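Incident log, structure service

09:12 report received: a user says their structure output differs between two submissions of the same chain.
09:20 pulled the input from the user's history:
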Amino acid sequence: MKTKRRFSLSRLFRNNKFVLILSLIIAVILWVIISLSNTNETDSIISNIPIQINLSDDAEQNGLEIFSGDDQNASVSVRGNRVTLGSITSDDIIVSAQTAGTISTSGTYALSLTAKKVSGADNFEINSVSPSVITIFVDQSKSSTFKVENKLKYTVAEGYHADVTLSANEIKVKGPQTEVSKIASVGIEGNVGGEIREDRSSDFDVVLYDSSGTEIHNGMIELSDSSITANFSVMPEKEVPITLAYKNKPSDLNIDSFVDISPTKILIAGPKKDLKKITSISTEEIDFSDISNKKTKFKLDLDLPNKIVNLSENKNIDVTLDMRSYKSKRINISNDNFEVTGLDEDYTYNFSTDEISISVKGPKSKIKKISASDISCVIDASDIDGTTGSISLPAEIKLKDSKSCWVYGEYKVNIYVFKR
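09:34 re-ran on a clean worker, output below:
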């Protein structure tokens, strides 16, 4: 028969695991009792408390804002028993600048700080606040927009041209009126290393300048873009001759010896595949109806193809036509030789103009052979759109057969239009 073992307290205390667990429990109980019974007061520091700075309603209505000093935190020294202090956080204390409500004008102000307990926070006292004084800057807000000046320094490889485009051509600045008013210009500056011979992009910080060109550094000023990307578009160069373009020029009239053109060549740049196709650059047209038998000067624009850039200093071409060796002749054309086109069939007309006198220019040997029968006069009435009564319309005058002479001037014919 198995004998039943009796419980033995002495044997239990000889068990090392039991003794260890019991000791820990007793130690915790004693710590809690001692802590709860400890009424000795001590000091502690509560940190990272936001500082409340409230301007008056009148100041805000006058446009005043705090531009610096309003993002500071304070530390507060408090006193209380250990248990209470262990539960206090920055949410239990308010730190404020009481005199901020008296500010009414722009300027820099030193404000004293005070601290108080949040309603319901008890069992501790406030000793002091640090810092005791803060400095803020108050002003009205101002915004201005400036064109970005490109002050970059770079070298383009010989035989190439680089166009620089910026990711932003204007910068908007915003900040205290006093500081923004000091800004005279905005730009980017820097050195682009190496010779540029292919497309590239680089970023540059935006720089503010005062009226003397000195850089302005002010953390209170906000920029719409703090940096700008400069894109370098690189194209090969090519020198090409200038050719004159004409309108209404007689096909057999050779006037090369009577023309003076300056410059005769220009330097252009463009994409390689487009540049390869270009052998010359043409001017805008010279209308021979504006050319008399005199010495005439023109300043002409160039007809540049798409994507082609004129790199020359001359953006216009000076042309002189010395036509004084040619002759002039007046020929009268009666309305029997007039022709009206484009008139709606519901309308008819009578000529109010009996005849017009045409000025013809050309070589002496050719011009003396031209008569009224060699000239056509066509009046286009397609744009009168139902108008009746007396109407003055432009007349297109052409020489029928001559390839060496031309008609000088502009002409109009009066017709009387009425319904059939």
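09:41 both user submissions now match this output. Likely a transient worker issue. Closing.
09:42 reviewer note: The first strand starts at residue 41 and ends at 52. The CA atoms of residues 168 and 228 lie 6 Å apart.
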